[in-house]
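Appendix B. One record, verbatim.
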Amino acid sequence: MHDEAPFPEQQRRIFAYFDGAKRRFGDPLLILRRIKANLEGQDLDALQQQMDHENPDVKLRALGKVLPAFYAAFEVPPLDPDTGEGVPEEQMLALAGRFFSWLDDLKKATGAPPSSSPPTGGAAPTAVAPATTATTSAST
């Protein structure tokens, strides 16, 4: 008879984000696995460097590879031009950036293994919507 959860609430590491319609919660390891799986063997760090490249063609090719992986990993729909529903690409890049920053902060706090660096994607906004701020479930 165990009435306690396996981990106290403050030890649960759950990433919270807004998917364009509602607040969602994701297992960070599952999100990372999905990103890597959807990149089909391409190196995320190398693609992130290409996203900052001064040549617009290089930047656009990298974005074309990274964005679908991010949408799939977070199970977030891209913007539908007919309905206006979904998440625009700049907001998707901002969400992914917050996720990687959150992972880095978590790593520093817990000594967890390193993760990829956050994507910069050029002109991604620093604040998109308050609901997309990443938090652990303990602070929500």
